[in-house]
Write a structure and sequence with these properties.
The chain has 119 residues and is an alpha+beta fold. 29% of the residues lie in helices and 37% in strands. It is built from 2 helices and 6 strands, in the order E-E-E-E-H-E-E-H. Strands 1-2-3-4-6-5 form a 6-stranded antiparallel beta sheet, covered by helices on one side. The longest helix has 19 residues. The radius of gyration is 18 Å and the shape is globular. The chain starts with 5 loop residues before the first strand and ends with a helix.
Length: 119
């Protein structure tokens, strides 16, 4: 696991946002000359899966598919890369609540709707 905050190739990892069975998601920055900064997300393949060729191929296929799509509801992909034998996808950062935060906030309303429907 990366020491946070810290460098990852040309990116600076600021915080770990999430981790799942297949990947780890980090808030990152691309820092350039003259104070240039771009906030983005780095999706890194899980260390335990990074050595499994079929999974790496799926990860690469995911990046190729995502970069070919262009829609307002799909996060843009900037790069598929490898740093220290770790594959990653760099993508747009979208500020806002997570899906679990939205669901928690909507839970009382959803319960009322279900109760109303079932009466």
């Amino acid at each position: 696991m990366a020491e946070l905050p810290g460098s990852f190739g040309k990116y600076f990892l600021c915080d770990k946002i999430a981790a799942g069975g297949m990947a780890e998601i980090y808030l990152a920055k691309l820092i350039g000359p003259g104070g240039f900064e771009k906030k983005l997300v780095i999706k890194k393949i899980s260390p335990e899966l990074a050595r499994e060729r079929p999974f790496v191929e799926m990860f690469v296929a995911e990046a190729k598919t995502l970069v070919s799509l262009s829609h307002g509801n799909i996060v843009p992909v900037y790069e598929l890369g490898v740093v220290d034998d770790t594959y990653f996808i760099a993508m747009e950062y979208v500020d806002g609540p997570t899906l679990s935060e939205l669901m928690a906030a909507l839970a009382p309303v959803l319960k009322k709707l279900v109760a109303y429907r079932d009466r």
